Amino acid sequence: MFWITRSLAIDPADLSESFVRSSGPGGQNVNKLSTAVQLRYPIDRLIGMPEDMRARLVALAGRRLTLDGEIVLIAESFRTQAQNREDALVRLIALFKAAAVRPKPRIVTRPTKASKVRRVDAKVRRGAIKRARGRGRSDDH
β-pairing, 70-75 with 16-20? Predict the structure, then answer.
């Protein structure tokens, strides 16, 4: 089991992987061996996933989520199947862990009186600098 939270885990039996030809590094091996991993996981198999987490997961997965509800990750950064398999699995778990984090609600605050005064003072000072700019004061005109 790959644990996401204390109560949610990915069952390795639900993962399906296939190996395809990689476009990454590997010299002649790229043309001969299928080292890239295509990892698939149906998100409906994660039992007990809260609805808000599911919504965040769908948003985070983006184009990696199929219409059938499967997350598809392709890993082809490494030259071996084992390293690419590990990379895809780490990325899948990281995706689920990111979706499990609830965003902190924003607390609405108001600016203090002192901060308003500082802002207005800064605007007045900046305006004075701009007014003093570019006006040649000569009595000839």
Answer: unpaired
d(Cα 89, Cα 87) in Å, to the nearest integer? 5
Chain center to CA of 26: 28
Q: Which domains does the chain have, with CATH numbers?
A: 2-100 (3.30.160.20)
DSSP string, 16-53: EEEEE--SSS-TTHHHH---EEEEEEEGGGSTT--HHH
Note the pTM of the prediction, 2 decimals. 0.68
Per-residue pLDDT of the chain (141 residues; tens, 9 = 90+): 877 777 787 778 888 888 877 775 666 666 677 778 888 988 888 777 888 888 888 898 889 888 888 889 888 888 888 888 899 999 988 998 898 889 899 999 999 999 999 999 999 999 999 999 976 666 655
